[in-house]
Write a structure and sequence with these properties.
The protein is built from 3 helices and 4 strands. Helix 2 packs antiparallel against helix 3. Strand 2 and strand 3 form a beta hairpin. By secondary structure, it is of the alpha+beta class. The longest helix is centred in the N-terminal third of the chain and has 19 residues.
């Protein structure tokens, strides 16, 4: 009986923390924009500035957001490629990248 109570408490704490740290659409757009800017490189300041101005809107327009109780799934299509990420604990983990 005691093991069951401890297991239940651990599960409630785990699920509560997942719910409270579930990332939002804005967090996803900011994170993905940061990744894109980082991949663009520091040697292209014009491209970086353009991405900072228009990138977030472009990401939001081409992304689909699914909110589940304890995590989120974000799908983005860009230049014919589809990327899919799971958002949990304020971070994003790739679950699918089209080649």
């Amino acid at each position: 009986m005691k093991k069951w109570i401890v297991s239940a408490v651990v599960m409630v704490v785990l699920l509560s923390s997942m719910y409270l740290t579930k990332p939002t659409e804005d967090m996803y757009a900011d994170w993905l924009l940061g990744v894109v800017i980082e991949k663009a490189g520091a040697n292209q300041p014009l491209q970086e500035t353009t991405l900072k101005i228009f990138g977030k809107k472009m990401i939001e327009k081409n992304s689909e957001y699914n909110d589940f109780v304890f995590f989120t799934i974000h799908k983005t299509q860009f230049k014919g490629k589809e990327m899919k990420f799971i958002g949990v604990y304020n971070s994003f983990v790739p679950i699918m990248k089209e080649k």
